[in-house]
């Protein structure tokens, strides 16, 4: 980092710290604006630091997997911690595909173990992450979005996202789809059965696809459920 760049970041950091101090003494509306501005300042100071972003992502990834082995009360806190890491990663590296997908996965898994009255909101937040992932790389989280639509009973949108996942090469194989509990609401419908049969009849089976994100020098991400990457819900 050049001296000029370092001085600029120092100035931005100092300004953000002052905004926090002002926010603590301000009324709600003004405080909210100051906090938001400060957060943007903090994020800009650590932006473009690939090592920092990668550490945040992998920290969140580890928390995501740890949560799956914990009792519900502990798991909820760990999922929330993972989500904060993925969210922070996206602040520092807005095009970090893995953080967008796994952040959505964390919200979905959190929804499954949460009270019924909170599930809809959590699935909505998961959807926000998956839509961001698709903006970063077209179709990368289309299957996840299909799962959310299936859970809501939105059959038309579910089929549309399944087709998008198929066309982008990010669709699991038919066996995995049929085993996915998120699809239970649509598995008996005629269109779903037809979709699966068409997949089975394809000359080449739907296979795991490695997608070269080429974003911020990040590694390629496996867009299919595997032991190493669980991007699908």
Set out the fold topology.
Elements: H1 3-24, H2 28-46, H3 50-67, H4 72-92, H5 97-112, H6 116-136, H7 142-152, H8 155-168, H9 174-179, H10 190-200, E1 210-211, E2 221-222
Biggest beta-sheet profile: 2 strands, antiparallel
Total tally of structural domains: 2
* Helix/strand class: mainly alpha
C-alpha-based Rg, rounded: 20 Å
CATH class of the largest domain: Mainly Alpha
Order of helices and strands: HHHHHHHHHHEE
Instruction: Please identify, by name, the CATH architecture of the largest domain.
Output: Alpha Horseshoe
Describe the structure.
It is a single chain. This protein is mostly helical and 233 residues long. The protein has 2 domains: 8-46; 47-222, Serine Threonine Protein Phosphatase 5, Tetratricopeptide repeat (Alpha Horseshoe), CATH 1.25.40. 68% of the residues lie in helices and 2% in strands. It has 10 helices and 2 strands; from the N terminus they run ααααααααααββ. The protein has helices spanning 3-24, 28-46, 50-67, 72-92, 97-112, 116-136, 142-152, 155-168, 174-179, 190-200, and strands at residues 210-211, 221-222. Strands 1-2 form a two-stranded antiparallel sheet. The protein is elongated, with a radius of gyration of 20 Å. InterPro entries: TPR-like_helical_dom_sf. This is Tetratrico peptide repeat group 5 domain-containing protein. Pfam families: TOM20_plant.
